[in-house]
Predict the structure.
Amino acid sequence: MKKFNLGLVINPIAGIGGSVALKGSDGEGVAEQALALGATAKSNARAALALEILKPYRDNIVVHTASGEMGENAARTLGFDTEVIYQLKSDVTNERDTEQVVAKLMTLDIDLLLFAGGDGTARNVCHIVGDKFPVLGIPAGCKIHSGVYAITPKAAGRVVELMITNQLVSLTDADVMDIDESLFRQGIVKAKRYGEMQVPSELRYIQAVKSGGKESDELVLQDIAADIISKMDDELFIIGSGSTTAFVMEELALDNTLLGVDAVQEQELLASDLTEPQLWQLIQNRTQGSIKLVITLIGGQGHIFGRGNQQLSPRVIRAIGKENIHIIATKTKLNALTARPLIADTGDSELDMELSGYLPVITGYNDQVLYPVASPQ
């Protein structure tokens, strides 16, 4: 029986700037700046979550990859038959390494190219592959606007599992999108389509391209903001990123970090654009119940954690407590999910499970609905 030949590429620094509020890892010196601020690389851990799903099939898989942190370490640690097809020349990788590894993999008889990164990594892969070969992304970056990514790392593993077990999996074209990170760090989102790639299509596991645009129904947003503001007493309110949460800040007449995390107490701005360490320092000595978290979902995808709010780390979320999380969204946004559940992709499987089930979503003033949050795939 022919073994399944899996091409694997990991961008070791993907998303490294997320937890320290740098809004990504693109740009010269950004990764070094993130490390200096205490950030840790997590893309290998997220790739391992996908590969963990495939462990029962190890005898039938050969992983073709680059040396070290670009794939070899993750594959060998989990016991996969691993062929190193590209040797890194430095411990510091860049987009040229990604493109060279992909180019080498395209000369081999691989069945699928699996890569871990963000939208910048997807662009690098697309530059070499185009729309001629099936690929699948493991989400590991701050920005995941592209439709070539699975909704979670484990979901990526499930899609590959379907292929390995010879189940029917359709191929579809998905857009590769990215935004200008220099503008992103100024709170300006400017997305652009860079091409498309073929992805194995299984709608339970593959994300939609991120919806753009602001809410048009201002009255509904005013009602949602009024509900949150009415709950504000002397507790500390952590306000997550997004246009819906930004409306709450606008109604409070407070400066807002559209793509960051702010802190409000007694309806006054306490701190803005907090990094994960700063946020942890702010909350760690407070009693649970004295902190509230206001978040919204990412339009079109349904993520409440793991997309653009990596500052809200597992330890921060646990310290706040599930019962102190306020999810806000219009019913229009919820209906756009077409009954798909919300997704908690914190990077901590146990926490994702704890967050699963039906949670209340505030959809207006004194108006809320129960909506499911998915268990880890």
